[in-house]
Request: fold
Amino acid sequence: MSKTPSKIYRQHVCNLRELELAISHTGRLARAAIASKDPHRSLRSLLRLYSFLLGAWTETRLRKLLHEDPGFSEAERGSITAETTQLAQWNATVNIAFRKHHKLSRAPLDERTLGVAHAARRVALLDVLSEELRIVIELRNKLAHGQWIYPFNNEGTAVEEEKYRLINKENLLSLEFKYALVGHLADAVHDLVVSPETFERDFEAHFRRLFQVRSNLVTRSYTKYEQALTRSREKARAVRKP
Reply:
């Protein structure tokens, strides 16, 4: 008989579903704005809202992951949540997941202790966090404080130029890909910790999907995405004409 999920786990699931609904609605409105060539100049605001919701979803997805059963112990959760930033908590989650899977308490996490394949996968997950997902995680608080165009430093004395460049570089396609990346990363960590019996089958599949999305972030053209949405809208309007 399977164990009933904990109350806090069920609460995180409810929060996650509500955020997913909000992301879906915001994405639909953003696609409509792109398809109609943004006549009301609403797209930038919708992208900021999508980015904020994605940051909130990323934090909530981590909380759900930490309370999966079986999974992380209370002490392990405490060690992770003691980290002072969301990015550090995600990094700690990845590292502890590999320690649990390989039953390593203190040994270094390297090719000798994890094996070549798993050492490379660990580095890849940490690289996704530092490269593609860092801006999603770190900008959530900036957006929550109304810094939708100019993100300031913690002292509020100057604009953080790198974050300014990155937030204004995001588009709907890149945000959708990052949404998928967080999901694949969390699923891979879940397999390490929660499902050892299906680990070899599912972990590799999650990695293939993660690397495909990561490749799409680099190779997929936003211009073509935009043009496809516009053409689709024009065709739909032509069909509706008497």
In short: DSSP finds ten helices and no strands in the chain. Residues 7-35 form the longest helix (29 residues). The chain has one domain: 7-240. The chain has a mean pLDDT of 92.
